[in-house]
Amino acid sequence: MIKVYFYIVIRKKRTNWSRFFYQKPIVRTTILLSLICPSKTDFFQGSFRYFSTKPAFAQTENKKTDTPKNHRLENFLLSTKDRDEWTRLMLAILNSVTAVESVLSQGVRVNIRGTDRFHGVTPLMFASRIGEEVIVKLLVEKGARLNDTDSLGNTALIEAAKMGYLDIVRFMLQQGANPNAKTNENWTALMFASHEGHVEVLEALLKYGANSDSQNKFGMSPVMYASQNGHIEILQKLINRDANVNLTSLNGSTALMWAIRSGHEKIAELLLESGANPHSSENEFQRSPLLLAAKFGRKGILKSLLFSGADIKAVDKHGANALILALGNNHFETARLLIEGGIPVNNPNQNKLTPLMIASSKGNFELTDMLIE
After folding, report:
1. What stretches of 181-248 show up as alpha helix (H) in DSSP?
2. Is the pTM of this model over 0.70?
3. Is the pLDDT of residue 42 over 50?
4. ∠ Cα 154 159 165 (to 5°)
């Protein structure tokens, strides 16, 4: 059962290492115990040693109470010196500061790496990922390298930023961690903070020189992620740092377009107020922000775009104007706004379909009458 569970969680996909961190502590411990013990017999023998009765330790400095169970785990760690050192240190990090100190005192290297199966994760990355601040400080004190990367390019700072652990992020930056380190896909800590909405983490990264205009392999920037995910406070802080609101991703989309797709009206307004270009077009269908707003029925954003001077006569590569896109996607209130705004009502698309034909086919006779008039 243990081996089957471990296979599903860890080995099924190369990227499933991240799922390990989201398991409950007892599950994570079970997984790591299954690594230590090569057979089912060894596993239960190890578990028996782990749960044997021993006196309790005192309170540790990281506020974790050293219970009899914690002491039993330390005894288990001490009794398995012939086992994998990395695994023992990971178990210790899950347990307590005292357990980590005990394992390190046996000569286990503080910068030891996991196998390829675990992407070469270091103890510092692991502790940062699960938010163990006191253990992070201990590992750094013992010589853990701040800017080491795993096989995916993650650093300990990036791991802490992903999860929003502000105190760990601040500590890392104070100790000299690189705020602009990039993963193999060119994600930075600032991008993760922007994507996840970690405002204070973002502030700390900006304070230490994080690049607000960096772009990953998809061409996405912190501004784009904040816009896409509705994090208006983060967007405002990036704009206050003069972040470029008109960068384009690989598909030609701007932050404004990502906000429109996601329906974040306030963010679209902020971007337009901050100089976002209402006339740009994405690559695939050559659609402008106004055309996208019509397609997705973003009536409020459409009003802001028209107020900002967006071209109401714009068409995409199929010859469809905003009215055709709105009608074709059943956004009749948006279509009404466009008609009232003076959009050409007789222009067909490449398939020779006019707005009147589409409105009639949808059975919207009120709009049909408006178009005829």
Report:
1. 189-196, 199-207, 222-228, 232-240
2. yes
3. no
4. 160
